[in-house]
Amino acid sequence: MKSQYMIKPIIQTPDSEPNNSRRRFVFGASAMLALMSIPFPKNAFANALSQSLSQLSGKVFDLSIDYKMVNFTGKSARATVVNQLLPAPLLRWKEGETVTLRVKNNLDHDSSIHWHGIILPTEMDGVPGFSFDGIKPGETFEYQFTVQQSGTYWYHSHSGYQEQTGLFGAIVIDPATPDPVIYDRDYVIMLSDWSDEAPENIYAKLKKQADYYNYRERTVMDFFSDVDKNGLANTWNARSMWNNARMSDRDISDVTGSTYTYLMNGNPPQQGWQGLFEQGEKVRLRFINSSAMTIFDVRIPGLKMTVVASDGQNIQPVSVDEFRIGVAETYDVVIEPEVDNAYCIFAQSIDRTGFTVGNLTSDPSLHAPIPPMDPRPVLGHSDMGMDMSDMDMSGMDHSKMDMGGGDMSGMDHSKMAMGGGDMPSMDHSKMAMGGGDMSGMDHSKMAMGGGDMSGMDHSKMAMGGGDMSGMEHSKMAMDAAKATVSGLGLAGFGSNNEIKHIDTEFGPQVDMRADAPKSGLHDPGIGLRDHQQQFNRKVLTYGDIKGLHPTYDTRQPSREIQLHLTGNMNRYMWSVNGVKFMDAAPLEFEYGERLRITLVNDTMMTHPMHLHGMWSELETGDPDFIPRKHTVLVQPGSKISYLVTADAKGQWAYHCHLLFHMPGMFRKVVVK
Amino acid sequence: MNKTNLMALGLLSLSATLTSSAVFAGGNDDPLLTKVMLDQFEKGVDPQDPTQFSAQAWLGYDLNKLWLKTEGEYSNSDKQDLEIQALYSKPIAPYWDVQFGIKTDIKPTPTRNWAVIGVQGLAPYFFDIDAALFIGDQGRTAMRLSAEYELLITQKLILTPEVEVNLFGKDDAELGIGSGLSDVSAGLRLRYEIVREFAPYIGVDWRQKLGNTAEYSRNEGEDTQETQFVIGFRAWF
């Protein structure tokens, strides 16, 4: 079963090879090598999947949506299930085949199934209201499409809040050509959040009291302990910012473990999920976050995880100790556990109000200890989108900080322990020049386009390390003439456009605007930023992700759309550019165009943004290997860019995948 | 003026309900909701102390709401208070709503009616503010300012200091109200949230009549200042 020649779990190719055709050849050749030397692995592990997820495979699937009473908390509550299962059955497809899915709705409400991350015709996408009317009670809808991709995906209802009540399942698509990922066994790990409360009630409670589920608010005791530690003046100053903004630095998740029970493959934590492996096996874990509202941080104490795919798409392997998985994202990791040992798959919620666990072992009698949760995160000023890069209090332009209406006048700016000179229009943080790796850097790739070069202050550039001598500036793509034509940053490097807050962002519906949003690319995210330092854990960042396949569409973007994720936490309203879905005109893409979307997060929440029908090609710094994703986390007060090739005509949904943000933070995309 | 606004709100609500009934992928972002808050329902520990309540309710959407506010005081003596406000509320800033409508002071008699314009919201440092101007008939005017703060001792044990001041434009001898600053009150309540929606509390309430109003009280042989210890509960749904 095990391959004879593979040491690494992945077929690797040289990394620093900019030549696409060469890379393609190497890729193809090694794939062929794999084909010749080992049997195609599908049959070998088909039976090895977790017993807890029941699998359906083939070309025709009958799925029936029903209500069912379940009990995850000691109380019984009504769930929405597929074929009487929660999670819904794991669907195993094969790339290149045409699948038919007959979905019968036995609910007394409309329902639907959306195939998340699957490239398909718009009428098969399963979003009610967009060239599909939903599935009426008692009716059967037949989905049929040809599977054009491989990897780990999932499906869920796109009607009302049925997703939170259990209507979600995994999709694994076996590749038509041999899988470049070598493994002996695979398991799907589906993470979800369950509440006995009806989702409509949760939403209503949040509208009535936005911090209803937050039992981690700052108390008088915290204040005294801070005063004890830092002195009264410092504590007061540190608090004044938040008090003025009327925001809570403890506001991490809208809905928390106070109502949610976190599940792994449908198992609550006290029960846990269990997976078995045999000696010497490479195990591929296919993580899917099918939660309604919960972002998870995943690790397996004692094991390195090699991340081999993100959102179903193969990436150049990255070895990590921990990764954050946003709602709707998927990550595939390969691990090499040791025999006669047990490992805990530990997924803690981003706010540390709960976790879910699995036990991975070669011997069912062994149980790995469950680690304690990490310290709960507290938001910082940078999560409000303020430039904290140099703590020089001298000349901060406070006029740029615009939070919540005109009530900032009473604010004593001199006390604010934050700084930064006036923020240059150019955002140097985009230039991923951390550390001392300056020597090997290919400056020709630097996206320093635009006419703003004159105003650029190189002395401020955060090019860590003093070894600037070897830098050949002449090679830098400061081709002003060229860059001015498009005015856009080069493909693969993200936006260099100015952050603009348009008029609709001003009003009672928006409580904050990030005026110096940092790039979210290299940010592990709130609560994880100190894990390297504190626990010596390497945490995956988007900056680590490079596609395994060379960039599919090598064109430069012809235009850029800047979208601001906005909200009013206190009123519990969410929107894009300050306009909620109901009031918004659709976004129009021209068929065939290559464009860039830059998302600016003007809130303090982490938003997983999901574009239907087309890939979100995340610009992680290497134009030759741009990874494809379907859901992109936008860090608080940060920005991130991706490229989209508008190759799918029709109407598509584009929204935050946090279930209670989605109704407002939603756009229709029309490709014509 | 009020009637027109109420009608406008009604139409607005209706149209919002109609448009929101369409099936959309993400569900209705702005459902019609109601919230009823019994902020204070309390009895003084002294048997002669009155029973008091203060309640608010709203019906509406994210941005436009109808509010009802009522507060009252009941005791066996003839000293009873009951007022009701019906307001239309509309946001003017992320944390601020402007509210206008009517207020009726049913007790004590004779009944007084007022037009109301006010602002309600969250000020920096998390002060809950309610400030309103009342315009009555016969040239009567009044103003009320109240502020409340929540101090979390633990996540469920919450101390709430509050202050309120009332001002009147002119004397109302029948009701014993004098012009100018008429009274100041301050309260301190310590509640324990058994669940978010229900919290019993203990507290202390202090009231001081001032100026001409105090003068009226003294002429009636009443105290101008009262302090009472209260037990009660807070509830909402």
Features:
heterodimer; A: 672 residues; mainly beta; Immunoglobulin-like; 7-stranded mixed beta sheet; 6-stranded mixed beta sheet; 7 helices; 32 strands; 10% helix; globular; disordered N terminus; B: 237 residues; Porin; 12-stranded antiparallel β-barrel; 12% helix; Cu-R_B_prcur (chain B)
What would CATH call the architecture of chain B? Beta Barrel
Write out the CATH superfamily name of the domain at 503-525 and 541-671 in chain A.
Answer: Cupredoxins -  blue copper proteins
> What is the makeup of the main sheet of chain B?
12 strands, antiparallel, barrel
Biggest interface reads: A-B, 56 and 36 residues
- The helical percent of chain B reads 10-25%
Could you tell me the CATH topology label of chain B.
Porin
* Global geometry of chain A: globular
| Biggest β-sheet strands, sense, barrel of chain A | 7 strands, mixed
Strand content of chain B: over 45%
> Residue-averaged pLDDT of chain B, rounded?
89
| Uncertain stretches of 5 or more adjacent residues of chain A | 1-51, 389-485
Number of strands of chain A: 32
Secondary-structure blueprint of this entry?
The complex is a heterodimer of chains A (672) and B (237).
Chain A: H1 20-37, H2 42-45, E1 55-57, E2 60-70, E3 77-82, E4 88-94, E5 98-105, E6 114-116, E7 140-146, E8 151-156, E9 168-174, E10 185-194, H3 199-208, H4 220-230, H5 232-245, E11 261-264, E12 273-276, E13 283-289, E14 296-299, E15 305-310, E16 313-320, E17 322-325, E18 330-335, E19 342-349, E20 355-361, H6 480-486, E21 518-519, H7 531-535, E22 559-568, E23 573-576, E24 587-589, E25 594-601, E26 607-611, E27 616-618, E28 628-629, E29 631-634, E30 638-645, E31 650-656, E32 666-671
Parallel strand pairs in A: 1-4, 2-5, 4-9, 10-13, 12-20, 21-30, 22-25, 24-32
Antiparallel strand pairs in A: 2-3, 5-7, 6-8, 8-9, 10-11, 13-18, 14-17, 14-19, 15-16, 15-18, 19-20, 22-23, 25-30, 26-29, 26-31, 27-28, 27-30, 31-32
Chain B: H1 2-20, E1 33-44, E2 51-60, E3 65-74, E4 81-93, E5 96-107, E6 112-123, E7 127-136, E8 141-148, E9 151-152, E10 157-168, E11 180-192, E12 198-209, H2 211-220, E13 225-236
Antiparallel strand pairs in B: 1-2, 1-13, 2-3, 3-4, 4-5, 5-6, 6-7, 7-8, 8-10, 9-10, 10-11, 11-12, 12-13
